[in-house]
Design brief:
Ferritin; mainly alpha; about 0% strand; 7 helices
Length: about 190
């Protein structure tokens, strides 16, 4: 039986969170953008892969949950008088997507595994943020998000294992995880989730 969890190969630097705390309103704009994109991604997978009937219900649930998170972040932003930002570029996600192979099956496998890694990195960082925040409501909110994102990271691997043998999934996941570790080490710190 293959492993279900996704363990990041490199941890976020402990000082990273200072950039978030010092620019929290800007971070909220990026966070909202990430939740919106995560919801849209799940629905785009449904649209692009209508034949993957075993995972469509899970993808729909995921899209709804990410949209709920977007709404929750937006509510926090409204309280603080922070407007939504136009689409924010994500160098981290762009670098991971550049690693994805072509061809319908390879692309689907890579898209699911990259999504898993992105969710796990997001979970790790939500946990770091939750621990660093002093506001009890925000601390509670980011703790809840940490748990949800961690679950999502595992769900993408679970879903892809319904269509690919673990011998195909885990070696590719290991390769992508190693590349993600290199990407995260080189990224400039910004008031963003990734």
């Amino acid at each position: 039986m293959g492993r279900k969890s996704v363990d990041l190969l490199t941890a976020t630097h402990p000082d990273w969170v200072e950039v978030i705390l010092e620019n929290f309103d800007e971070f909220l704009q990026d966070h909202a953008n990430c939740e919106r994109k995560a919801s849209a991604l799940a629905m785009s997978l449904v649209v692009k892969h209508p034949d993957r009937k075993l995972i469509i219900p899970q993808l729909i649930d995921l899209a709804v949950e990410e949209l709920e998170h977007f709404g929750q972040v937006y509510a926090v932003m409204q309280k603080r008088g922070v407007p939504l930002a136009k689409d924010i570029q994500d160098p981290y996600v762009n670098a991971l997507m550049a690693l994805m192979r072509h061809g319908r099956e390879d692309r689907f496998l890579d898209r699911m595994l990259v999504s898993s890694i992105v969710e796990c990195r997001g979970a790790e960082r939500f946990g770091i943020i939750a621990e660093a925040l002093e506001d009890p409501d925000l601390k509670s909110f980011y703790t809840t998000l940490y748990k949800a994102e961690r679950k999502h990271g595992h769900q993408f691997v679970d879903m892809v294992l319904k269509y690919f043998d673990s011998d195909a999934v885990y070696p590719r996941l290991d390769t992508l995880m190693a590349q993600e570790a290199e990407i995260i080490e080189k990224l400039e710190w910004r008031p963003s989730l990734h």
